[in-house]
Amino acid sequence: MPKSINIESLVRENIRKLKPYRSARDDFDSGLLLDANENSLGAPVRNSLHLHRYPSPVQNELRKKIAAWRGVDFENIFLGVGSDEPIDLLMRIFCNPGSDSVITTPPTYGMYKVSASINDVKVKEVLLDEKFQLRTEDVLAAADESVKLLFLCSPNNPTSNDLKRTDMLKLIAAFPGIVVVDEAYIDFSRQESMAALVQQYPNLVVLQTFSKSFGLAGIRLGIAIANPEIIQYMLKVKAPYNINKLTADVALQAFDAMDLMKFNLNKIREDRQYVAEQLRHAEDVEKVYPSDSNFLLFKIKNAEEVYRKLAEKGIIVRYRGNEPLCENCLRVTIGMPDENIRFLKTLKEVLA
Ligand SMILES: Cc1ncc(COP(=O)(O)O)c(C=O)c1O
What we know:
By secondary structure, this protein is α/β, with parallel strands linked by helices. 36% of the residues lie in helices and 14% in strands. The protein is globular. The termini are far apart.
């Protein structure tokens, strides 16, 4: 591993020099609070969260809960508006628009490329192999001077599988920039999270989210786990009050309901197996790929037409046939048990 890696030298100069926005709340959060031009008479709707006040800019209570859950320190945790915010912030911290680049490994989550385009950052694409695993040598060969970030996604969307841990470790150790491992689906996988490894690898950023295993996509809460130096840059660049009080409150409540969360995870894993088996027996289905996530990717004859016909009958899945290595592939999320049955039944009708 590149022990000599110097995070500061990878950061854009303007970000290194940036003086972040500071409010009085960074220093005081109690007393007669007449500092922030809030409406002291309160909101016209009842609430117990003091919603007329700005939320904590640092969210330490929630960060501590998440850190304990993932076995890291709270200084290793950044909270963002979904995972999309940390993806964008990493581009803005490390990539000079117009000259720097990132590496992605398609077929993979589309937001890395969109975020790069928004930030005027080039994308070098190194395809996965036919088993949807990393071509580590090709990735390293593509890592020229302009490349600042490498995005890995494990379990990967849309292919649904884990990337091999040994391959990821090899890249984290040898890559000359920041390696971002997106673990949005990690709790559905048998593989262990890489979160704890941020203590060991200064160039590793692990992304997680409340949108999948916690079933809280609606609150928009994403997590970046990394060494404190990177977290400090993220805190410096984010909008001052990015995590709102309603979101933080629900996320804290979720930690009191971990048994139900784990129960649901197991149920989704079981149902995933059931849907996969049924799909394997369905006419025209040529392959159901092994899944470590809460969705399945399958290859089916005339996928685009099947996708359209399913939609006409009110069943919305995702057509992924335009992605490299995913010709004629559809992606389906594991639903409620009755929804899975409705999907399978409708598919049968469409294929009849
Ligand atoms: C791999 C991956 N990362 C991140 C996200 C987005 O997560 P969030 O809802 O936290 O923005 C998704 C959403 O589908 C995803 O598939």
